[in-house]
Amino acid sequence: MKTAVIVFPGSNCDRDLAVALEAVTGTAPAMVWHGETALPDGIGLVAVPGGFSYGDYLRSGAIAARSPVMRAVVDAAAGGLPVLGVCNGFQVLTEAGLLPGALMRNRDLAFVCRDVELAVANADTVFTRHYRADERITVPVAHHDGNYVADADTLDRLEGEGRVAFRYAGPVNGSARGIAGLLNDAGNVLGMMPHPERRIEPAHGGSDGRRLFEGLVAAIGG
Amino acid sequence: MKLSIVVTLKPGVLDPQGRAIHHALNGLGFEGVADVRQGKLIELEVADGTDDATIDAMCRRLLANTVIENYRVERSS
Q: How far is B67 from chain A (nearest CA, A)?
């Protein structure tokens, strides 16, 4: 499967995502600079990495979300292409309007950088099919703005529609309803604050993140 | 024409930074502060005659995230 990783000025997890995708797909992803206006042909996934795109100026992900390549990502998402946003990538996807709500400063104001336990809230998605429903997995987080916010009606609707993919199993950042990972209405866009690409092999301290990528490959085709 | 765009968190949106400032004010002995909300001020220099719809579009499409923020525009020449 061919894949692409978007690279913004200030991205710093693009290489981690590339290593993870190559390990699972066998093919190095195309690295696509933010100024590009089109995605490579024939890709089965586009990933938006973590980091501090544009220095988090204005709001985390705000400037990146308006960059030329994101117009191509929004169009591709509308066409059904799977899009994975991790950490700053999740912030970019909300700012681009691909996912509802917003990610605000962590409730306790601290940058949280540690392993967290997640509960798989929906195992019936292209991203989570290699997990079991309610399974607990351990994946690291590293963020300052991971506190998911949406109004109560939106949260009720998201939960009712099964669009919460992952929840924090314990307190992490004040995120509404413990939301750690969220899907769009069509189910082809996932944003998550935790970093599955940092848990790909035992040398990372665990490989719970690997199944996300393996499940994607199985869903989309190798 | 100079514009000042004042961006504030919507009522009801938790503002941890405002709360930390509030706490620090209390720590300095300033009592009687009921609440603190932190926002941001963005100053623009635009062509005279820039219409309201354009200014509003700039606010909605970039300067404020209307999911969580309100904005108001103050003009000075």
A: 6
Can you say whether the dihedral through the CA atoms of A177, A129, A6, A115 is positive or negative?
A: positive
**Band of pLDDT at residue A88, cut at 50, 70 and 90:** very high
Q: Is residue B4 helix, strand or coil? A: strand
Q: CA B38, CA B21: separation in Å to the nearest integer?
A: 8
Sole residue written with tokens 């690997």: A210
Q: Where are the domains of chain B?
A: 2-76
Domains and CATH numbers, chain A: 2-220 (3.40.50.880)
A189-192 and B2-9 strand pairing:
unpaired
At A10, which amino acid appears?
Answer: G
Q: Beta strands A2-7 and A43-48: pairing type?
A: parallel
Mean pLDDT of A52-67: 96
Please work out, in degrees rounded to the nearest 5, the angle formed at the alpha carbon of residue A163 by the alpha carbons of A129 and A186: 80
Between 3.60.21.10, 1.10.10.60, 3.30.1280.10, 1.20.120.530, what CATH number should domain B2-76 receive?
3.30.1280.10
CB atoms A107 and B65 under 8 Å: no
Q: Does residue A27 contact residue A18 with C-beta atoms inside 8 Å?
A: no
pLDDT at B67 over 70: yes
Establish whether A87 is a catalytic residue.
Answer: yes
Whether A106 contacts chain B with CB within 8 A: yes
**Would an 8 Å CB–CB cutoff place B16 in contact with chain A?**
yes
> One-letter amino acid identity for A77?
A
Exposed, middle or buried by CB within 10 Å (0-12, 13-18, 19+), for A220? middle
**pTM exceeds 0.90:** yes
Work out the number of other CB atoms within 10 angstroms of the CB of residue B53: 8
